[in-house]
């Protein structure tokens, strides 16, 4: 792995060094405890171990709260893909909890985002008085923040590899809800942190032992399975999303649409489309940060709340469910799980279906709403 290789190749081979069995596909290890060596000379009491001993042989395991074969392989692949040492957790919020435990900040500046993160921040506010500040500073001020001892954590869940690498733009730590694109099949709950600081990584590993927020054995196995196809899935989902957003945005702003046309039906019920591909920016910073495509999630605001509430029931290929990142397309009337949003808002996660089928599904749904 010393020479530059592609994302898909790393997804499939970055954990080869941990493959100590003959199986081509990683086997499922369900044991929580592992036998010590039969050679008495190899037995080192815990008190006599150096802190680095636990990182010398990643194929040797003691107890699954420390490490286990499946999520260790999962972390090996992610470390290669994220360009930083990765450590996994039982959920995305567990990962944020671990990051705040490590840094123990007195203040945190956080923008509008996932409401669950605010719940974790509120927990730390209750425990140690953590003060929450608004995130309202230009990217050019990042170095000034660093010079004052601040650290930058980027939640890159919505822009997984190969779409974005926050380390290239000054991030100190990268966080993911691995339940989304890393899992990719709506069947894995996990979180991930990545850092390039060896001392942080070792402290995170040690903290996780005592916090206990490790991935389960089955989740670790499913995670490795999913990462094998990460690049292919994300690229297809990104392409599907960009095409759908372009079509919707164009239809919404079509001048003087003919009566009975698709554009007329869309304009009758749809108010706005939100996606990075139609975002107005100053300069080329966005293209530089995401040169391989944009995120596969977008949002729409309907003209009336009743349209937003009804739209999911008019769609055939979209599941009305929360979360994102799976192979199947999802739509959520977002107020079902988030009390802070406009009740006319719907969040849409695009899957691997044929994008024209999804377009046709939208057309039928918008027409049905416009006729009511």
Features:
372 residues; alpha/beta; 5-stranded mixed beta sheet; 4-stranded mixed beta sheet; globular
How many E-type strands?
11
Helix content: 25-40%
Low-confidence blocks of residues: none
Q: Beta fraction of the residues?
A: 5-15%
Give a quick account of the main beta sheet: strands, pairing sense, barrel closure.
Answer: 5 strands, mixed
- Shape field: globular
> Helix/strand/pairing class, anyone?
alpha/beta
Average per-residue pLDDT, rounded, comes to 93
Give the helix tally: 13
Q: Which strand order does the major sheet show?
A: 7-8-11-10-9
How far is it from the N-terminal to the C-terminal residue, by CA? 59 Å
Topology, element by element:
Layout: H1 7-13, H2 53-56, H3 69-82, E1 85-89, H4 92-103, E2 107-110, H5 115-128, E3 131-134, H6 142-147, E4 153-155, E5 173-176, E6 191-195, H7 198-211, H8 217-227, H9 230-252, H10 262-269, E7 270-274, H11 285-289, E8 297-302, H12 305-310, E9 319-320, E10 330-333, E11 345-349, H13 355-371
Parallel strand pairs: 2-3, 4-5, 9-10
Antiparallel strand pairs: 1-6, 5-6, 7-8, 8-11, 10-11
Helix pairs in contact: 1-3, 3-8, 4-5, 4-7, 9-13, 10-13
Q: Would you mind describing this structure in some detail?
A:
The protein is α/β, with parallel strands linked by helices.
Task: Describe, in short, the structure shown.
This protein has 372 residues and is α/β, with parallel strands linked by helices. It has helices at 7-13, 53-56, 69-82, 92-103, 115-128, 142-147, 198-211, 217-227, 230-252, 262-269, 285-289, 305-310, 355-371, and strands at 85-89, 107-110, 131-134, 153-155, 173-176, 191-195, 270-274, 297-302, 319-320, 330-333, 345-349.
